[in-house]
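[Q] Does anyone have a clean structure-token version of this?
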Amino acid sequence: MCYFKSFLLLSTVLFSTVSFTQDYKFVSKNQKLLSDEQLKTMQIMITPDVLLFNEQGKILPMSNMELMANPDYKPLFYANPKGKIKSVVFQKKSNHPVLVEKNPESDFIKGEKALDFIVTDLKGKTIKLSELKGKVVVLNFWFTKCGPCVVEMPKLNELVKDYKNTNVVFLAITFNKKGVVENFLDETVFNYTIAANANDVITMYGVQSYPTSIIINKKGVIVFKEIGYRTNIKNVLSKSIKAQLK
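[A] Here you go.
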């Protein structure tokens, strides 16, 4: 993928209630730091020409985008005069003590019943959640331009392979239109069953951060919820899935 694009709440970046800034002289003078308020009203696009830095000014490889999902770091976004992001500085929070709010999306009530929904997959098959009782359902909320979503797909594909021919259903929910998803799949493999144009389900589950994974047990109860990308996502999901298959 040549682009990494996400919303502010994408992944597990937890923003503080008290901002902290610092003058990083290694960032070009024509770039301005975007405030949290500005970020809330825009989409974040990280293109290959964007420079990633640590606090000492060392340029980091694009693989360090995974720090976006690390709660120990706060990404600071710098934009050029045209408003395009050109630099990201990953600031370690332990060096700047602040009060950090917990992402409310990560909360769910133990034993909470999963809300029923009906979606259509890319082949035109109708899927009703309540009719999947007796199976473990793994939901993934994503969209085609979500960098962290794309990064975790190979691991999710491995998960699908590991649980082939078991009572586990892997269902990916996106607001993207069917045609957009199909074009995306021409270049990228994603082996979940995909439901496109599923805005109603996204709203129903209150999803604002991408990717989000939710596991529903055989009784239709939510037992696990993971907000954002993490490098060990396969192991985390597999552990919960195995617990529900016992």
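[Q] Thanks! Anything notable?
[A] The chain has two domains: 4-95, 104-245.
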